[in-house]
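> call design_seq(struct)
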């Protein structure tokens, strides 16, 4: 009997269930968007109960579309938006507040206070991360200190914290009826609470943040059986056996298992990951040091990461806030209606600037406006912003490793946009390679689960599944490239010091 793997891909804008066969081919998928909640400027929230409800719906719909039952599914892998913080009552299963999303900047005062008391280097040395609102810890503190009764309930041991992987795992395995409270090492490495050398929660960090340790899930590897789907689930008794944060999952799905291999994901934001093997490389150029994956009881593999907050969400902003396009796909048609950006640059620092700047004071700008500029130029400038930001993190990787990236493997929803992919190759000056299977995030989670369950035997079998769809080769003259980069960097400086 043919058997399959299911991935649950809980992303920033939607939740998807995707069923893969042994070759990595997609057999069926289902997707549900969830509400983006913006209570005020800089605040971004999701409803955890909506996400859990959507998860159940997409699991059922994917099974139905593939005409499969639970008996056909070997196991489940989970991948998720990282850093997003959910705190819930373990007795009722009810969140005490909405999920505070990774893009949220409301906790800057907490970051400033810890900067004054401990210094950012204390956190960087232990976690590999800068002290920033991006990560989970300050979001947990905000919930505990703002929601009435939350801190008291946490100190009494009644509350649990998790990133979305943990929330889904707990609910899938029974929730209040014995749900498993765990996360994997990649997600734990994004909290500012885990020691990156031991891959365990650090008492000193926990004390610095003032977070009761009883909130925290158990840290486990990225590929092992965490538990089984509860008897109330459509997939009852099916093992959940893989968890990877979304960017690490995409790296795994791209078969970038070895030191020096890399990928760039184009989603809500952009995330470049370069595998550094078992070596922890400390960045001197604004990158993050993070865990790439850990398979069972093997040693963890590490990576450098260039995190960009706003890329695909800039296109959503053109659609939803400005009404310039009716669907995200329309941006390419609009962008190719003009030959170039007309001197217009968009720097989407909606949540400050992430790598390589880490400027929480930055806010977005559109510069170079003249009467000549039309919406086609703005659409093209919005696409180009993604490529320019990627160029800056590639430059940081080259400086940190001393080994230049010679080609870039890409994935994510935006890679279907060939105008963007060609401009990306042009502004990098290296080939950009799109894989046959673009759903690499979900595929990576399936791979991690399948390895734990023996569905795939080893990494070589996964490498054999990877195939190239299209290669974009740079065609831009060097002077044109350098002139464009100069103007981009000039535009970036205009975002600084907006928030005092």
């Amino acid at each position: 009997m043919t058997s399959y793997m299911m991935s649950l891909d809980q992303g920033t804008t939607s939740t998807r269930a995707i069923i893969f066969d042994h070759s990595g081919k997609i057999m069926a998928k289902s997707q549900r968007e969830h509400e983006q909640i913006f209570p005020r400027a800089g605040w971004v929230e999701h409803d955890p109960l909506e996400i859990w409800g959507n998860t159940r719906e997409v699991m059922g719909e994917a099974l139905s579309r593939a005409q499969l039952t639970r008996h056909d599914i070997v196991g489940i892998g989970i991948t998720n938006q990282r850093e997003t913080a959910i705190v819930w009552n373990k007795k009722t299963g009810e969140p005490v507040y909405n999920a505070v999303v990774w893009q949220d900047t409301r906790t800057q005062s907490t970051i400033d206070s810890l900067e004054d008391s401990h210094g950012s280097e204390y956190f960087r040395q232990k976690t590999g991360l800068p002290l920033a609102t991006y990560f989970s810890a300050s979001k947990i503190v905000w919930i505990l200190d703002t929601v009435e009764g939350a801190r008291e309930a946490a100190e009494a041991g009644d509350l649990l914290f998790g990133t979305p992987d943990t929330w889904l795992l707990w609910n899938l395995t029974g929730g209040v009826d014995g749900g498993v409270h765990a996360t994997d090492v990649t997600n734990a490495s994004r909290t500012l609470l885990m020691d990156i050398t031991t891959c365990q929660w650090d008492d000193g960090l926990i004390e610095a943040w003032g977070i009761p340790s009883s909130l925290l899930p158990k840290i486990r590897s990225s590929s092992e059986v965490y538990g089984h789907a509860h008897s109330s689930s459509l997939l009852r008794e099916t093992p959940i056996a893989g968890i990877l944060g979304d960017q690490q999952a995409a790296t795994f799905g791209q078969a970038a298992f070895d030191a020096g291999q890399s990928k760039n994901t184009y989603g809500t934001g952009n995330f470049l990951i370069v595998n550094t093997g078992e070596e922890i490389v400390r960045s001197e150029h604004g990158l993050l040091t993070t865990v790439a994956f850990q398979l069972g009881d093997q040693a963890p593999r590490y990576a450098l990461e260039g995190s960009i907050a706003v890329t695909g969400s800039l296109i959503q902003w053109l659609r939803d806030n400005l009404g310039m396009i009716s669907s995200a796909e329309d941006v390419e048609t609009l962008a190719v209606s003009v030959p170039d950006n007309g001197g217009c640059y968009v720097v989407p620092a909606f949540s400050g600037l992430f790598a390589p700047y880490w400027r929480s004071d930055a806010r977005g700008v559109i510069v170079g406006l003249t009467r000549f500029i039309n919406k086609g130029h703005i659409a093209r400038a919005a696409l180009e912003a993604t490529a320019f930001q990627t160029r800056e993190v590639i430059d940081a990787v080259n400086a940190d490793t001393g080994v230049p990236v010679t080609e870039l493997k890409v994935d994510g929803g935006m890679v279907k946009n060939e105008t963007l992919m060609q401009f990306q190759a042009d502004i990098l000056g290296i080939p950009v390679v799109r894989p046959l299977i673009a759903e690499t995030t979900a595929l990576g989670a399936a791979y991690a689960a399948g390895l734990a369950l023996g569905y795939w035997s080893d990494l070589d079998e996964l490498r054999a599944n990877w195939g190239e769809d299209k290669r974009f080769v740079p065609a831009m003259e060097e002077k044109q490239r350098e002139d464009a980069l100069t103007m981009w960097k000039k535009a970036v400086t205009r975002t600084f010091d907006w928030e005092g």
